């Protein structure tokens, strides 16, 4: 298994001369994401909004925690691989939104660009991002296969395969890739074995945490629904997540539930409502981070901010 000694380099501050350019690019990206989210929010119906208003109070902090699960566990991965500073958590939040709103894995391209800008290295960011995504995909595929096997009878009763059509078959692509990775692992992975084990443990814990928290939120919202039905829905959600090159898989899942269960189903309305809540959280993250970036720009442009930055740079050269 190849070793990548650059993979553990500490991230360094970006070149100050490029800060303005990156600021404009970040603003353009944020504006585009806000526009995309607002367009998708336009599909909200009165039934879905009513379902959101009836969510129990404890469901809201659980939803926020569920939303932060991906970036928090990503931070645990890249903290070890890159010694990522706390400031990198903002990049992981943006990566999560880009993956969900724009296109699957487009957020990884953003993270790669961010890491190169922050670290000034080429091989290390690519190797770490690639390997982390491969390990995450392998474990996600395993969870999907287990849930699909457990729920096979119920999925057949829902006529799930026929309704999904070619989209479901496209989900076999990542499964086939997983088999290839297992067969040629030594040539595919770049990180050291200890680093891969760390990534695998973190990704495994993330999947467990996500699964438990997702079912908990569903049960809090609709306590009368049986656990078996929630497992079937979880299997469908995982199968949808395996379909490549689609954006906002929560929204796709919510619309699929309306198709499978009918518009009058309380379960379908809940899935659509939670997808809408996730979109609102995406919007809040992008607007919030944009406001933080704007405040930082004003601070750096102020006389006091310039004085502090000059003093820091002068001290760094002494």
Automatic annotation (TrEMBL):
The keyword Membrane applies. It comes from the Bacteria. Signal peptide: none annotated. The keyword Transmembrane helix applies. The chain crosses the membrane at residues 21-39, 59-77, 134-155, 167-184, 196-218, 267-292. Keywords: Membrane, Transmembrane, Transmembrane helix. This is Flippase-like domain-containing protein. It comes from Caulobacter segnis.
């Amino acid at each position: 298994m190849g070793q990548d000694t650059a993979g553990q380099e500490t991230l360094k501050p970006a070149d100050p001369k490029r800060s303005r350019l990156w600021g404009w690019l970040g603003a353009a990206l944020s504006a585009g994401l806000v526009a995309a989210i607002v367009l998708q929010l336009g599909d909200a119906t009165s039934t879905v909004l009513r379902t959101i208003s009836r969510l129990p109070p404890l469901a809201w902090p659980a939803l926020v925690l569920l939303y932060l699960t991906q970036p928090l566990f990503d931070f645990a991965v890249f903290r070890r691989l890159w010694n990522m500073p706390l400031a990198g958590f903002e990049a992981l939040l943006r990566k999560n939104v880009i993956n969900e709103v724009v296109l699957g894995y487009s957020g990884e391209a953003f993270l790669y660009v961010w890491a190169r800008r922050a670290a000034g290295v080429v091989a290390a960011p690519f190797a770490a991002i690639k390997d982390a995504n491969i390990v995450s995909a392998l474990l996600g595929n395993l969870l999907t296969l287990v849930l699909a096997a457990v729920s096979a009878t119920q999925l057949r009763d829902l006529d799930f395969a026929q309704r999904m059509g070619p989209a479901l078959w496209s989900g076999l692509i990542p499964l086939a890739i997983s088999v290839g990775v297992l067969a040629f692992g030594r040539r595919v992975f770049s990180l050291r074995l200890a680093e891969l084990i760390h990534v695998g443990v973190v990704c495994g814990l993330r999947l467990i945490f996500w699964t438990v928290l997702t079912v908990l939120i569903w049960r809090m919202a609709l306590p009368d629904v049986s656990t078996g039905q929630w497992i079937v829905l979880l299997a469908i959600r995982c199968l949808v997540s395996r379909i490549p090159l689609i954006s906002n898989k929560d929204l796709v899942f919510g619309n699929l539930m309306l198709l499978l269960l009918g518009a009058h189903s309380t379960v379908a309305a809940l899935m659509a409502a939670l997808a809408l809540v996730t979109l609102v959280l995406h919007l809040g993250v992008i607007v919030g981070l944009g406001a933080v970036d704007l405040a930082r720009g004003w601070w750096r442009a102020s006389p006091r901010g310039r004085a502090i930055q000059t003093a820091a740079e002068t001290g760094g050269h002494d």
